[in-house]
């Protein structure tokens, strides 16, 4: 009688039925293992098809849609984004016509543009970058990043259809939000963001395919953009904007993860920050923003997909860094909300 030499020859799987978890133990190549995978994916697809956009909007507890008037100044817009703890908002004109979205990446790009104008006009005292930036109307920065084209769906769209919109290969970008339209009037009622999707995944973690698998088994992470902590703010912002990212890793001389520069930090930018573009990014995080930078959230290759999803939802962050977990704690990769959403598309 032949016995398995290692427990790694077997995989523990679980299916959830009415709150009860049934565990199965099959050899990796056993036909039942293939059947389980097929059943799990089929069940996941059924779940996504059973949930409507209106269900997610109800669960969001977002009270009302936060909007911006196209005449709103960037200073007032940043204040509104900070107060409501959001990174983006739809913009409407005086006639209540939808003009597009503005997010912090758009504002970041505009800030870099204003700062570069300052360099060209360095000896022109009448050029005031703080005034040029903070007093400009928000209409000037709508989709400034060329990465925020609006996409929408109606209230009766299924979650699978929402994921399809977010992952469409026809686009050169993956939208971070989908506007939800009233079925009758087709007026925007709410927004479903990537964070809302991740919270849904976390709330239904026992139905998520491969939730029990380790990160190292799934090839889910990718190489992060790294910037040294003592790099100038202008360099860090340029990397953030040119790579169309909402956050980048800040590392020390040994390449160890030290901090994170994110869109949330830029939300609280102060006028004095324009004097810090040639100073270190660390100095900006300490003095150039009213936001309170968070310690980077990390996991290890041994963490499961379920661990990562639940952590992203709990910490309300948009990325989690993968580190070795050893004494040197080497930075190995990063997993973003986009990575998770694309990985869990049901096709």
Overview of the molecule:
It is a single chain. The protein has 347 residues and is α/β, with parallel strands linked by helices. It folds into three domains: 7-50; 54-205, CBS-domain; 215-343, CBS-domain (Roll), CATH 3.10.580. 35% of the residues lie in helices and 20% in strands. It has 13 helices and 14 strands. The chain has helices at 31-50, 53-59, 74-83, 104-120, 129-134, 159-167, 194-203, 215-218, 233-242, 263-266, 281-287, 305-315, 337-343; strands spanning 10-17, 20-27, 68-69, 88-92, 98-103, 152-154, 177-181, 188-193, 226-228, 247-251, 257-262, 298-299, 319-323, 331-336. The protein has a three-stranded mixed sheet. Strands 6-7-8 form a three-stranded mixed sheet. Strand 3 (68-69), helix 3 and strand 4 form a beta-alpha-beta unit. The chain is flat and about 60 Å long. Mean pLDDT is 83; it is low at 1-38.
């Amino acid at each position: 009688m032949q016995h398995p030499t290692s427990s790694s020859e077997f995989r523990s799987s679980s299916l959830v039925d009415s709150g009860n978890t049934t565990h199965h133990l099959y050899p990796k190549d056993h036909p039942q293992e293939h059947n389980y995978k097929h059943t799990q994916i089929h069940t996941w697809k059924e779940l996504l098809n059973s949930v409507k956009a209106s269900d997610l909007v109800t669960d969001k507890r977002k009270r009302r849609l936060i909007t911006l008037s196209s005449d709103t100044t960037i200073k007032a817009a940043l204040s509104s984004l900070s107060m409501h703890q959001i990174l983006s908002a739809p913009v409407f004109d005086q006639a209540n016509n939808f003009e597009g979205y503005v997010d912090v990446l758009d504002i970041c790009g505009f800030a870099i543009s204003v700062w570069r104008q300052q360099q060209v006009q360095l000896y022109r005292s009448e050029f005031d970058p703080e005034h040029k930036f903070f007093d400009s109307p928000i209409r000037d920065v709508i989709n400034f990043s060329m990465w925020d084209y609006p996409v929408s769906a109606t209230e009766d769209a299924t979650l699978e259809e929402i994921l399809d919109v977010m992952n469409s290969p026809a686009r050169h970008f993956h939208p971070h939000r989908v506007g939800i339209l009233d079925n009758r009037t087709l007026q925007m009622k709410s927004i479903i963001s990537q964070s809302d999707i991740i919270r849904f995944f976390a709330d239904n973690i026992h139905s998520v395919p491969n939730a029990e698998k380790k990160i190292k088994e799934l090839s889910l992470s990718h190489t992060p953009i790294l910037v040294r902590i003592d790099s100038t703010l202008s360099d860090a912002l340029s990397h953030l904007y040119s790579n169309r990212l909402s956050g980048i890793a800040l590392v020390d001389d040994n390449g160890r993860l030290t901090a994170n520069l994110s869109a949330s930090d830029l939300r609280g930018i102060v006028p004095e920050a324009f004097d810090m573009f040639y100073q270190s990014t660390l100095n900006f995080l300490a003095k150039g923003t009213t936001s309170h930078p968070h310690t980077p959230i990390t996991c290890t290759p041994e963490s499961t997909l379920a661990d990562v999803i639940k952590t992203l939802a709990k910490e309300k962050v948009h990325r989690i860094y993968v580190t070795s977990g050893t004494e040197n704690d080497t930075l190995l990769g990063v997993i973003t909300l986009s990575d998770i959403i694309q990985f869990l598309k049901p096709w």
